[in-house]
């Protein structure tokens, strides 16, 4: 997969899951390879198998597929939320961060939950406090904003910008402006 030889990757991962069908990482990587080949229904099947085996990345990804209604799935906010929560319940820092982002930014009322977003984002930041991650701080800032706390969002986004590598700062700075505007207008 690293060499972008996705057909070959599919073949190898299909062999891997045949030999070790309970290894969620192989199913997840098979899903990635299928997705890169433009085969969303095969990818969904592999992701779903990895999710059923408890892989938090796959659980999150299945949630995104249900939220968007791709890969042959209908748009289903309840299913998306179910899979997002499955991912977050494992206390995987990345899953917590991803679920927080989804809860803070989703336009689907079944998923949009600012209070849950803030809870998940704080947990992700707390779990990674020894090595602060700018993306997690950015998600916390968005969650604070979604909870009508723009001043705290500004402070948190400034921390994210200070830690972010130069190539990632642009998106953070755009959101910072949004928070600053809300802070000044009294949102």
Summarize the structure.
The protein is mostly helical and 187 residues long.
Q: Could you characterize the architecture of this molecule?
A:
- There is one protein chain.
- The protein is an all-alpha fold.
- It has a domain of 129 residues: Serine Threonine Protein Phosphatase 5, Tetratricopeptide repeat (Alpha Horseshoe), CATH 1.25.40.
- It is 73% helix and 0% strand.
- The protein has 10 helices and no strands.
- Helix 2 packs antiparallel against helix 3, helix 3 crosses helix 4 and helix 5 runs antiparallel to helix 6.
- The protein is elongated and about 55 Å long.
- It starts with 5 loop residues before the first helix and ends with a helix.
- The mean pLDDT is 92.
List the helices and strands and how they pair.
Layout: H1 6-19, H2 24-36, H3 40-52, H4 56-68, H5 77-88, H6 93-105, H7 114-127, H8 134-146, H9 150-163, H10 169-185
First CA to last CA: what distance? Answer: 46 Å
Q: What is the N-to-C order of secondary-structure elements (H for helix, E for strand)? A: HHHHHHHHHH
Radius of gyration: 18 Å
Q: Work out the helicity level.
A: over 70%
Give the CATH superfamily of the domain at 54-182: Tetratricopeptide repeat domain
How many strands, what sense, and barrel or not for the largest sheet?
A: none
CATH architecture of the domain at 54-182: Alpha Horseshoe
Strand percentage lies at: under 5%
Mean pLDDT: 92
Unreliable residue stretches: none
Shape: elongated
Question: The CATH topology of the domain at 54-182, please?
Answer: Serine Threonine Protein Phosphatase 5, Tetratricopeptide repeat
H/I helix tally = 10
